[in-house]
Design goal:
Blueprint (H helix, E strand, L loop, with lengths): L13 H7 L2 H4 L3 H17 L5 H20 L12 H13 L1 H4 L7 H37 L4 E6 L2 E7 H26 L1 E2 L15 H7 L4 E2 L3 H6 L2 H27 L7 E2 L18 H25 L12 H25 L1 E2 L1 H9 L5 H10 L4 H18 L8 H7 L7 H4 L2 H6 L9 H17 L1
Helix pairs in contact: 3-4, 3-7, 4-5, 7-8, 7-13, 7-20, 8-11, 8-20, 11-12, 11-13, 12-13, 15-16
The structure holds arginine.
Length: 459
């Protein structure tokens, strides 16, 4: 039975009926829908709309529906309904009879769906934050187990300067920390209780919205009924935060794909997160990471979709808004999946210490240190840069590294060079020199690891 049949005489077109139904997507809100309905039944009873026996019948009926959903998760898949709200109402009427017909007094599916999605999203945000925390933990464990490993840092994907591997990993730790904080903001804006807004103008019965807020565990009330039923900004906030987290995951994935390639060989991915080729027996492909990179595109697309969905809508509710949930759920599911797979990748990967140590010794990663050496001897940096450029060119022609030139050769370039130049060229010096706050010196990285540990244990 339709919840709105009275005004209609003709039957609904079959294609439109399928098209109009959101039950396949919004059935995952059923527990929130029941939770909201229980609170609303209490509010109606307090307002004198439901008698105590009617309230009891409704509470019992909703309780039975909830139990069935929990015991028989496959039940909903076989059911047909316009949406989850009309499904719950129809089930309730079957169990509770006439009392069930009173539950929708003063309420609209418009404030109901806003409530359900907010309740659902608040919990989902916490689940995502837990998984961001778990991924951050894996990054931190890997960093701590490789405190002494240096890798080439890259700009333009060309070797630039050595950095500690832990410093590299902590860069991603920072990104995920920001994602976590962004979700806190998103939670705060999601945490507003819309029930009582009715279809658009507010509830016509004296329901106590403040009591509903407290019963449903919200931090604040929505303040304007028109806004409350048509606001999906909290979903935009979430999808935007999810899209940016996916961008971070995708950048990590891209790095690890490159670093694990035979051409780089800095790390090796475990069999657990790689696949083979159906034709080339030697291949071990980083599909886990490629899929993370690929799935970032979906969530970025979802952000564009939800913004486009909202941009032309007149106030207040329009059925276009039903399209929000697929975008929201897909963003959530994709992000959670990617966070779990990224954890597995980080947990199981190995670092090729010998490749890393060879890679940081080659290709003039200490050229900046040589220029800095000359600066300490009194030469202006721009001149030092020019001179070291010439020395690098000379080495390239000779096929040697900077540390392989003799002091006499150095002195042909400048009388400023002394015997201490070779210390300046060492990897240890190069790292230790970058001891500013935020730099890659071992002392700073040790502090950063401790700070990261503290922030994770704060939760
Ligand atoms: N299924 C609808 C949605 O997700 C619920 C609200 C329907 N309201 C209405 N007036 N048709 O948006």
């Amino acid at each position: 039975m339709k919840t709105w049949g009275g005004r209609f005489t003709g039957p609904i077109d079959a294609a439109f009926e399928r098209f109009n139904s959101s039950f396949g997507v919004d059935q995952r809100l059923i527990l929130e829908d029941i939770e909201g309905s229980l609170a609303y039944a209490n509010a109606l009873a307090k307002a004198g709309i439901l008698s105590q026996p009617e309230l009891q019948q409704i509470v019992k009926g909703l309780g039975e529906i909830k139990k069935r959903v929990e015991k028989e998760p496959e039940w909903l898949a076989s059911q047909k309904a316009e949406d989850v709200h009309s499904f719950v109402e129809a089930q309730l009427v079957q169990i509770a009879g006439d009392a069930g017909f009173k539950l929708h007094t003063g309420r609209s599916r418009n404030d109901q769906v806003a409530l359900d999605t907010r309740l659902y999203l608040k919990r989902a945000i916490i689940r995502v934050q837990v998984e961001i925390g778990n991924l951050s933990r894996e990054l931190l464990n890997l960093a701590k187990a490789h405190r002494d490993v240096a890798i080439p840092g890259y700009t333009h994907l060309r070797k630039a300067q050595p950095v500690l591997f832990a410093h590299y990993l902590l860069a991603y730790f920072e990104m995920f920390q920001r994602d976590y904080d962004r979700l806190n903001d998103c939670f705060r804006r999601t945490d507003a209780m819309p029930l009582g807004s009715g279809a658009l103008a507010g509830n016509g019965f004296p329901v106590d919205r403040e009591a509903l807020r407290i019963e449903l565990g919200f931090g604040q009330l929505t303040r304007n009924s028109l806004d409350a039923v048509s606001d999906r900004d909290y979903q935009v906030d979430f999808i935007a935060a999810a899209a940016l987290a996916m961008v971070h995951l995708s950048r990590l994935a891209e790095d690890l794909i490159v670093y694990s390639s035979p051409e780089f060989g800095l790390i090796e991915l475990s069999d657990a997160v790689t696949t083979g080729s159906s034709i080339m027996p030697q291949k071990k492909n980083p599909d886990s990471l490629e899929l993370i990179r690929g799935k970032a595109a979906r969530v970025i697309g979802n952000l564009g979709s939800i913004l486009s969905l909202l941009k032309g809508l007149p106030l207040a509710y329009n059925k276009d808004l039903q399209e929000d949930k697929e975008l929201l759920f897909d963003s959530l599911d994709t992000l959670l999946d990617c966070l779990l797979v990224a954890q597995a990748v980080i947990r199981t990967m190995t670092v090729n210490r010998s490749v890393a140590s060879g890679a940081v010794q080659a290709d003039f990663l200490n050229a900046t240190d040589l220029a800095d050496y000359l600066v300490r001897k009194g030469l202006a940096f721009r001149k030092a840069h020019e001179l070291v450029g010439k020395i690098v060119l000379h080495c390239e022609k000779q096929g040697v590294q900077l540390r392989e030139l003799s002091l006499a050769e150095y002195q042909q370039f400048s009388a400023l060079f002394g015997g201490d130049v070779f210390d300046a060229l060492s990897l240890e010096n190069s790292l230790a020199a970058r001891s500013v706050f935020g730099g890659t010196a071992a002392t700073r990285v040790a502090e950063a690891l401790e700070a990261a540990e503290r922030s994770l244990s704060r939760g």
